[in-house]
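Write out a record, fold above all:
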Amino acid sequence: MLWREEAARRKPKRYADWEYWAKPVPGFGDPSARVLVVGLAPAAHGGNRTGRIFTGDRSGDFLFAALHRTGFANQPTSVHLDDGLQLDDLYVGAVNRCAPPANRPTPGERDNCVPYLAREIAALERLHVIVALGSFAWDGTLQALAQQGHRAKPKPRFGHGSRANVDPYVLLGCFHASQQNTFTGKLTPEMLERLFVTARRLASGFWV
């Protein structure tokens, strides 16, 4: 049994009435987006449950609140597929499409999923800015871009606020919106909001 299916079978009591998605989770958002957010993977009881990345978990609560404050989302919460969430000028995806044990994908799982991210990037014809949430997403995004013939040499290093030009894209690094980072103050709402303001300005052609 795959882990995503095992997590659905052993669901916690608070989700006892849910029929889990328990399949690979696709990206979603505005197909005309100029900004792409890349996460690590669906959470076992978040996207793996709801069928939409960052939907129904604490990381998503933090992320979508910031997207709402910066005008990329029409509402600050995302709890299920039909909750009315709409994204404007932004698309959300992930390096891994299936929930991994303990949120720790293996390099092999990453390599299997990266071609899907590469195709998503290619399909977003107006895309200009990519925000990578965490070092795993940063490395996976660079790998996906390389598969499309876009390479940065030397390999840029990840950090919050890091910026790399991978023509024709700008890659921005951001600490992941995990509880490990948000509960400790490593990533604050203000930090995340500033980063998305920067992403919007870069997508609009303003160098900041």
The beta strands are 28-29, 35-39, 90-94, 129-133, 163-166, 169-174. The chain has one domain: 3-203.
